[in-house]
Amino acid sequence: MNEATTIMGKDALRVEKAGPMATLQDAGRFGVRRLGVTQGGPADLHAFAWANYLLGNAWGAAVLEITLGGLTLIAERDLRLALCGADLNATCDGEPLAPWQAFTLHKGVQLAFDSPKAGVRAYLAVAGGFRDEPVLGSLACVTREGLGGHTGEGKPLAEGEMLHVDANVVDAIATGEGRTVPERECLDYMAPAKLELIPGAQIADFTGPSLFRAFHDKWRVDARADRMGVRLTGPRLECRLGSMISEGIALGAVQVPPDGQPIALLNDRQTVGGYPRLGTLTPLACARLAQCQPDQTVYLAPVAMGAAQDAYRRFLAAFVD
Amino acid sequence: MKLPRLENAGVEAWLVRLFDTIDEANMPWLMALCRRCEEAFGPALIDLVPSYTTLLVHYDPVRLTPGEARARLATILADLRPDDAAAEGAVKELPVWYDGSVGPELERLMAAADLDRQALIDLHAGQEYRVFALGFAPGFAFMGRLDERLEMPRLDTPRQRVPAGSVAVAGRQTSAYPRQSPGGWNLIGRTPITLFDQHRDEQSFLQVGDRVRFQPVERAEFERLGGDTRPVASQQEGRS
Q1: ipTM of the complex in this document
Q2: A chain contacts of residue B61, beta-carbon cutoff 8 Å
Q3: How much is the average pLDDT of B16-44?
Q4: How much of chain B, in percent, has pLDDT values that exceed 70?
Q5: Mean of the per-residue pLDDT values for chain B?
Q6: Scanning every residue of chain A, which has its alpha carbon at the shortest distance from the alpha carbon of B7?
Q7: At a CB cut-off of 8 Å and minimum separation 6, what does A184 contact?
Q8: Last residue of a domain, one of A145, A165, A185
């Protein structure tokens, strides 16, 4: 374990109890995908961005992604924090703490996450971002690859471990003061989600009835869902293509294996794959899907590339200088 | 080369499809395309994923619209040539200890190909392979094309733990596992080379486009090079 003060920063939060999975995530690991290294980063880019925004942090500052709760943290110093995304029934020394807000956590106070009331993943940001040694240019924790995170080895938080911050930034505090998240952006994760999908190059290889049903029927989020991908169950989609020569896979690609049940590929997906694809979910649709619990209903909605990109650029413009 | 096609891959990526079939001769073209993209996109380039017949180009949507990115790719494709020496690929050697203890499918492959041990080793190590893509795990290189006599489908049930360094074949391809991981390829030997190390300058020993030769070594040499001689079977505890 690190000393109280390291070159990477000062002690901020101690893990009193580790839940099923809490990992550090920055914007992702880029420039090394040709080596087979995946991008990582926040499964819910939307909540990640708002959490950093509330504190005036730079785009991509590292936050803690807390999956399903079960985590208890103790403040090692006074901290300015923001919580966005899933409602994991969080409490500060027993007092309920709702998401989508910034707050101050005083030294010695316990911040606990119980179990999901809505959504799957909560994002806890700290003023200036969490600090540690980047791996291949990023703190993004990818457990499958053993890369990144607070240990550098792709491990989720474990009991007794410490998260670090840049003390200069933390002690200055005030940044982002007065910022709030607009109500329309505080999403209702329990409502059926409409996921926008940009039709891809193999779309014409699916049969007509399959395409009709893909965009009109309900899809159910399967329990087989993680940071690599989320399986959807519903009508069986028939594609005239079997398997293809493996090719690079973009975030949000919706691949359809021979069983006809699509898999939306998320941040920790393998870099190449060889199943035909219905198309690509927009980044905000990926974010929304990452908050769906098993058995929740989602719909796929085709969207034109131009409209999707305009919407994404508008979203980024609010956060990126 | 057939006419290249540009396919949308979402709001921040284009997929350039250069070829329709797997061929060693594709790789100099893909390498040249990677280099040209790096020059033309500069800081607007987020990532590149070359693979067999295609290149996925992930660009920064804050700096470029899809139309602008597409126009840059069209300009590159108009006069793309595999003209630089780097496109020929570096030559890499992988020492391999071919042995049943570290390559449990060696015997089965010998039987299927009707070859004795030495003939099989000569066949696997007797040619140069191209790295078509890296994927599955960091540093895992898909190499081909394997002699058709050594063609064998993946295992029906993948192993939970394939030891690091395991040299394997599947279909018309061969590879080596950079780290212990699950895997369904047929194991025929082991290399002592560390294939992926994030702390090295060249994190991945193998790169897309490389030309690879396997160098048969005996157990003593394998050990001298730092190879792990523990049999595959002993590393399967906890297998589910």
Answers
A1: 0.94
A2: 309, 312-313, 316
A3: 96
A4: 96
A5: 94
A6: A201
A7: none
A8: A185
